[in-house]
What we know:
- The longest helix has 21 residues, at about 95-115.
- Helices cover about 35% and strands about 20% of the residues.
- About 50% of the residues are buried.
- It is globular.
- It has 14 helices and 23 strands.
- Strands 12-15-16-11-10-18-19 form a seven-stranded mixed sheet, with helices on both faces.
- α6 links the parallel β5 (about 145-150) and β6 (about 170-175).
- By secondary structure, the chain is of the alpha/beta class.
- α3 (about 65-80) packs antiparallel against α6.
- The protein has two domains: about 5-255 and about 460-480, Aldehyde Dehydrogenase, Chain A, domain 1; about 260-440, Aldehyde Dehydrogenase, Chain A, domain 2.
- It binds 2-aminohexanedioic acid.
- The site of 2-aminohexanedioic acid has 11 residues, from loops.
Amino acid sequence: MPSHAETLAAAGLSETDLIGGSLTVRSPLDGAEVAQLAETSLADMPAVIARAQGAFAAWRQVPAPRRGELVRLLGEELRAAKAELGAVVTLEAGKITSEGLGEVQEMIDICDFAVGLSRQLYGLTIASERPGHRMTETWHPMGPCGVITAFNFPVAPWAWNAALALVCGDPVIWKPSEKTPLCALATKVIFDRAVARFGDEAPEGLLQVVVGGVDVGEALVTSRDVPILSATGSTRMGAAVGPKVAARFGRSILELGGNNAMIVAPSADLDMAVRAIVFSAVGTAGQRCTSLRRLIVHNSIREDLVAKLRQAYGSLTIGDPREDGTLVGPLIDQGALDGMQAALSAAKAQGGTIHGGTPVDAVAGGAYAAPALVEMPAQTDIVRTETFAPILYVMGYETLEEAIAMQNDVPQGLSSCIFTLNVREAETFLSAVGSDCGIANVNIGPSGAEIGGAFGGEKDTGGGRESGSDAWKGYMRRQTSTVNYSAELPLAQGVKFDI
Ligand code: UN1
């Protein structure tokens, strides 16, 4: 197993870059200190933002397909450095190797998507009501895009935003989580390789990484020179960020908490459901915004499913996420483990029966826990709260209507799914009276979305959409143009104004 310093060096982060600063970075694998990083000072933020504005003045004039070429090169460099960057994700976020690599693959995928998009930033031609007139809608670059990311997906959500922003003509200022700044610095090394190959057309300051806490983020949130602010993180963070961006009439793209459920109907393929449940409840140690947190099971199969799950949970290997065979790595830190234990105590007090969930002494210095299955008598307060840990609450239902009502009766609205072989149930779940989430799946768990669809959700999830579909429109400004090629000047709506 390489040392932490070797893993970082392989990703282009030398020891001298990682010492002498005030931000202590620890690996969740073993709690070891891996860096003392220099933080961006608040006094430097105006210059950072001015640099991004300068980059915007140049980048918006580069044709979009050329901008796509830079993103194509970024995708190539990510492919070449996939193993090294994936290892930094594992080191700093604690993901198992396959999930660290998967996160880098998600970056590569969105680069591919954005390259194609760079030739498809389509506008519209609109029928004018006036003779000799033509109306069009054109999409233009918008300006610097601030991207605030969370520890649990330290690189992919940056890529969803940055790949689109860059082809749309917007420079990016990235503030990673204080818990995972090294992933951002390692990504910047890769980005710089792509820029070096691309050449002078890429202005200085196209991507800047700022390291620090809330203050540094706040400088982006409140600046009128950062017209787009995309933030991934907790609902609490989004509730602080959203109104501040709105107060200056900026555009925010918020991807916040989830409290994702699966309905398991009587006809479900239970073996498939068990595999989907375990991956989505336990994968990434329950620290995805899409993690499965609530299981709403038909009473006729509840006992059987819980027995199968208890057996599957019992066979999970918990430990160093770099080891082959490990499926459950550490929580991000001791605070997360404490939060998990507090949630379990609350669940017990609210009538829950807990299986698992105890801390595990897997690697000294790390915060490891056995994933918990909690049978609940009802959807109590703790079930309606997102706890970022591997806790799965199990509840029963009688009618589909009741199950859908439970699924929707939480503050969050990110992801959801149903396991059923009954087409009426599946289609009802996906219909206007079904799931109220941004993501609704059939016979697939709630986590592990592909990049091609729009990603995000409603209510406390913040309403933003990132990644695929037409999410790119969030990074551009729309211009409606009416051109009069006649020799008359008719007014719309038949208004007469003769002078
Ligand atoms: C997140 O947890 O913030 O759908 C993002 C998924 C991943 C992205 C998760 N593709 O689980």
